[in-house]
Amino acid sequence: MYRKEEQTPISPENFLFPLEGKLSEENRWVIMAKLIPWSEFESEYALFFFEEMGAPAKSFRMALGALIIKEKLGISDRETVEQIRENPYLQYFIGISTDSNETPFDASMLVHFRERRGKAGKAVEFGAKLSASCFDGYVFLDHISWDNFNESGDLKAQVEAFKNYTG
């Protein structure tokens, strides 16, 4: 059965944010953000940049977080930036502390984030290499290193880690 009710249009500025303006601790992006040791990786990431020269780089959390969002949702670079702009949980995930309707970076920055990872047509790898596994909708960071390593050589350790996650 359906009973039609008169609905008064609500303007965006009168829309009430649920949870009294707080993010839910049970949200998948909040949970995943807590599982990744961002600050540990941030200090190592910073070693690859000059303190005094060039434009300031985006944080490790913003760069890797955006790439995780892109891959997890299976979307384009532009759609990734739009999703981040529209979703406070994704903003939190990449390290932004306040909800904002501004884009945190241009979609073209995702190309630079991938280049730092070393896979965008570079002969020499630069930046962090990582091994990750996905279980029950969560991504687990199994190994990260700034030194060259062959991911296939890490396969046994990844399988063991996956067994530990799943029992």
Report on the structure:
This protein has 167 residues and is mostly helical. The model is unreliable at 117-124 (pLDDT under 50). It is globular and about 65 Å long. The chain contains seven helices and two strands; from the N terminus they run H-H-H-H-H-H-E-E-H. A two-stranded antiparallel sheet has the order 1-2.
Strand order of the largest sheet: 1-2
Question: How far is it from the N-terminal to the C-terminal residue, by CA?
Answer: 46 Å
Strand share of the residues?
5-15%
Structural class assignment:
mainly alpha
Shape, please? globular
Biggest sheet descriptor: 2 strands, antiparallel
* Relative helix content: 40-55%
Query: What is the average per-residue confidence, as pLDDT, rounded to a whole number?
Result: 75
Low-pLDDT ranges: 117-124
Q: Treating each run of at least 4 consecutive H or I residues as one helix, how many helices? A: 7
Specify Rg, calculated over alpha carbons: 19 Å
Question: How many strand segments?
Answer: 2
Order of helices and strands: HHHHHHEEH
